[in-house]
Amino acid sequence: MNRLTVVGIGPGDRMSLTLAADEALQNCDLIAGYTVYVDIVRPWYPDKEFLATGMTKEAERCRLALEAAEAGRDVCLVCSGDSGIYGMAGLVYELRGESEEPEVRVIPGLTAALAGGALLGAPLTCDLAVISLSDRLTPWELIEKRLVKAAEADLTIALYNPASKGRPDHLRRACDILMRVLPKERLCAVARNIGRDGESVETMSLGELAGYPADMFCTVFIGNAAARLIGGKMITPRGYRDV
To answer: % helix / strand / coil in the chain, to the nearest 5?
Structure first.
């Protein structure tokens, strides 16, 4: 087949998998990906062959998937959430370069900001920014600049990768930066384990968020100036009622 399909599998439950993603995974010969994501889809497609690599092995993973496709396999490379938002689609195209072989397709998936936002209510009704707090690939100085600009623009902000064992204070640092621009009372929320066991949501102020024990299974939301709680749900009115 000589094809590599980069598939966003959503937050982790099969009900959030798109029909296009399911079709691609059903019809492929080989499913490749990060070990955690491969383990998520393995029970759904038990008759498939799998290729998994560990964390920080993104380039190796994509090269192996491309090589398998070049050898005639129909390969799916799975990504958590969306295949392009912090996913492997861009790296696959970089590594393939100007070549037209193998064929590459990209299938989008439900990213954590959307899935978490739905759990919270409707916090993303207006313009938004999505920012990762991981400085493994992006310098912290650039992350800080993006946080400040998003806050100054009064965008709703979704934070990915808010904390880990290696960077336990990144969320606190981000909150301190945001509070240079935003009031500490600004409405915020955390969605944890979206689409998986232990799924939960919490709302709090920006000041309270600074001390929240976040981890890599959390997606954090900082509301814009219009955000409010209505019936226990985080809502960002867009102004439809005033038209």
So the answer is: 35, 25, 40
Number of C-beta neighbours around residue 153 at 10 A? 12
Domains of the chain by start residue, with CATH: 3-110 (3.40.1010.10), 113-235 (3.30.950.10)
Q: Which residue has the tokens 């064929």?
A: 103
Give the model's confidence band at 56: pLDDT under 50 very low, under 70 low, under 90 confident, else very high.
Answer: confident
Q: Among 33-37, 157-161, 239-243, whose mean pLDDT is lowest?
A: 239-243
CA distance 47 to 83: 23
Distances (CA, A) of 190 to 26, 46, 200, 235: 34, 33, 8, 14
- Reading the block at residue 237, the tokens are 């009115």
CA dihedral (190, 194, 198, 199) in degrees, to 10, reads 60
Which pairing describes strands 218-222 and 156-160: parallel, antiparallel, or unpaired?
A: antiparallel
Cα torsion angle, 211, 212, 216, 218, sign: negative
Mean pLDDT of 106-132: 97
- Whole-prediction pTM: 0.94
Could you write out the DSSP letters of every residue in 191-212? EESTTSTT-EEEEEEHHHHTT-
